[in-house]
Amino acid sequence: MKWVLALLVLALVVFHQDNWFWEDKRLVFGFLPVGLAYHIGISFAAALLMAALVKFAWPADLEKMADAPKPESGEGHS
Amino acid sequence: MIPALVVFCYLAVVVYIGIFAFRKGKESGEDFFLASRSLGQAVFLLSLFGTNMTAFAILGSSGMSYQRGIGVYGLMASASGIVIPLTLFFIGTRLWGLGKRFGHMTQVQYFRDRWECSGIGTCIFVLTAAMLVPYLIIGTMGGGHTLETISTTMGPDKKPVMVEVLKADGQREMVPAMDKDKPVLEPELDAEGKPKLGSDGQPALRPKMVPKLVAQHWVPYWLGAAIVALVVMSYVFFGGMRGTAWVNSFQVILFLCFGTIAFVLISREVGGFAGVMDQLAAHPKNSQLLSRERIPKAEFFSYMFIPLSAIMFPHIAIMCMTAERVTHFRKTVVFYPLCIALIWIPSVYLGVVAAAKFPGLKPGEANDVIPMMLSTYTDVWVAGILGAGIMACVMASDSQILALCTMFTEDIFAYYGGKDRFGEKAQVWTGRAFVVLVTVVAYVIALQLKDKAGIFELAIRFAFSGFAALAPIMLAALFWKRSTKWGALAATLWVAAAMLFTVYLHNAYEARALAELAPGKSFQIYPALGDMFLRVRPPGTVTMWGFLPVMFMTIGSAILMVVVSLVTKRPSQATLDKYFPPQRAAGNHTGVSSIPVVSEAKST
C-alpha cells in the first residue's frame, strides 16, 4: 500500500506541472480560467491524497513512544 | 475614519485575548514557549495555518497575479498544498514525538542531541535567526503603512486631502515636477530673470521644482508602527505560545469570514466576474493573465522547492510541538490544502480582476490591489473589517517573535547554563525581556529605514530559499542513521554561502536594463556564461538556466549532507540507539524509540 501511496504522491507532483493548459485561456462556467480551475482541482486532489496517507500510512506508534516513560538520563539536549 | 476605528477595536480584542491567555498560563518554560504542549485540534490547525498566512503571502500573491496571471495559484498555492502537508505528515509528527519524549522545544536542541554537537548547533541557530529577522521588521513596517493608509483624511470629493511637506527648518520640501515618469523642464534664469543660454546657444533647461505633497493621515507611520509593535509585543509578552495561537486562530477565522463577504460584494459591484474575464480576454496583452504564458516552465517547476521552507521555519517547527496529541496532525494534514485554497483563490483571482479595473500599476503598487478594490467596491464598514483582516496578516510576525525568543532562551540562554544558574522562572522572564528587546529593535529599524522596505522584502524572498535548502538537514537527522554533524555543518555553510552569492547576483545588473526589459523576458547577467545566470522580469528574479536558485541550493545541500556524512565519524552508538532503536529497526517507521534507552550525549 505504501508503494501505491508513494506513486500517487509522485503522480500528483507530475500533474501539478501540467503542460497541457499552459497557454489555454478558455473559461470554465464563463468566469474561471481553465488553468486556475485545474489547479484548484489539484488542491482538492492533494486533500484526498493526504486523507489516504492518514488512513493507510499513519505512524501509529508515535503516540505510544511519546507517552512512554522518559529515560532516566541522557534525555533532552546536552 | 471608520475603517481605522474598526481596526482599533480589532487590536483591542487581540490584546484582550493575550491577557486572557496569560491568566490561563503557568510560570514554566514549557507553558510559555509551547502552551504546555496542549493545543487542541481546532486551535492547532488554525494557528499553524495562520502563521503561514502573512501579508507578504496574501498581498504579495495578489500583486504577483496582477503582473503574471492565474498561474500564480499553481506557483504558490497548489504547490504548497502538496508539499507543506507532506512535510507536516513526515517531519512535523516526528518532531512532535521527539519533542514530547525528550523535551526538545527547538530544532537546534534536537540537532545538538541527535548529532552530539554544540558549536554546529549554534551555527544553525545563527543562520536561522538571521533569516527570521527581516520578517519582524517587515511586520512592523507593514503595520505602520496599513494604519497610515486606512486613516487617510478624505476630502468632500472623496479624494485624499494633500498637504505640503515641511523640512526641519520650516521650509517647504521641493521635488522635481513629473509628467508620466519624465521630469518637467523649464528655462534656467539668470540673476536678472533672463533665460540662460547653454554651450550650444540654446536656452538652458532645468527640472521644474514644485512643493512635495503627501496625503494627510490622522495616524502617521511612526505612530501606526508603534501601535502595532506594542499590541503584538503585549500579547506575545503576556500570552506566550497560548496567546499567540489563540490570536492566530481568531485572525484566520476573521479573514476567512470577511474575505468571503468582500469577495461576493466585489463580484456584485463589478457587475459579475464573467464580464471582467471577457474584458481581459479581449485585450491581446492582458489575455495572457488568463493562462501561464508569463511564467516560464522551468521557474514553475523549481518553485515547488520553496514550500519545503515551511517546516524549517522555526515558528512552524516549534508550533508542531504544541499539539496535545499526534492525532491532531491528522485533520491538519488533510485540511491544509483546502485552507490554502480558500485564502489563495480569491487573492489570485482578485489580482487578475484588478488588472482589468486598475491597469498600469507598477510592481510595488500592485501589492495594494486588494485594499484598493476594498475601498473602491465595498462599504466603508466592510472595508474596515477587511482592513482588520489585512492587519491580521501584517501581524503574523507574532509567531516569528515568539520563535526567536524561544530559540534564544533555549538554544543560547539555557544551553549555556543560564537556566541551571538562575532557574526556570528567570528563563521565562528572560524570554519576555527578549520579546521587548526584539520588538524595540525592529521598531527602531522600521523607523530609520522606512523607505527601504524593498531590502527586507528581498531578504524574505532569499530567506524562503534558505529555509527550503535546510530541509535536507532535517530529513537526514530524522531518517538517516549515518548522518553526521559535519554533514549538517557543510550543508549549513553551503546554504549561507549560496544565499550570499544569490544576493550578489541579484545586484549584478544594470538597473536601467532591468527596467526596460519586457515582462517575462530575461537577460544574461554574465554573457560569457550564456544562460547560466539570468535575470528575469518580473519580479526581478535571478535564475540558473531558467530554474530558481532554490533548486540548486536544496540539491547541493542534500549532496553535501550525504557525502560529508559518509566520510566523517557517526555519532556514538548510545545516541544512535536512542533515536534508532536496534530492536525495532526493521519495522519502525517512526525512527525513534518506544523503549527508554539511556545515552550520554557528548558535546563537541
Oligomer: heterodimer
What proportion strand of chain A? Answer: 5-15%
Q: Biggest protein-protein interface?
A: A-B, 49 and 75 residues
Strand content of chain B: 5-15%
Provide the helix percentage of chain B. 55-70%
Short description:
Chain A has 78 residues and is mainly alpha-helical. Helices cover 58% and strands 5% of the residues of chain A.
Provide structural commentary:
The complex is a heterodimer of chains A (78) and B (604). With 78 residues, chain A is mainly alpha-helical. Chain A is 58% helix and 5% strand. Chain A has helices at 2-16, 34-56, 61-67, and strands at residues 27-28, 32-33. In chain A, a hairpin with a 3-residue loop joins strand 1 (27-28) and strand 2. The longest helix of chain A has 23 residues, at 34-56. Chain A is elongated. Chain A starts with a helix and ends in an 11-residue tail after the last helix. Chain B has helices at 2-24, 29-34, 41-52, 55-68, 71-102, 107-115, 119-150, 221-269, 273-282, 297-302, 309-312, 314-320, 328-357, 363-366, 369-377, 380-394, 397-414, 418-422, 424-448, 453-469, 471-479, 485-507, 511-515, 549-566, 573-579; strands at 162-164, 174-176, 178-179, 182-183, 185-187, 205-207, 209-211, 213-215, 522-524, 534-536, 541-543. In chain B, helix 4 (55-68) packs across helix 16 (380-394) and helix 7 runs antiparallel to helix 16 (380-394). The model of chain B is unreliable at 585-604 (pLDDT under 50). The interface between A and B is large, with 49 and 75 residues.
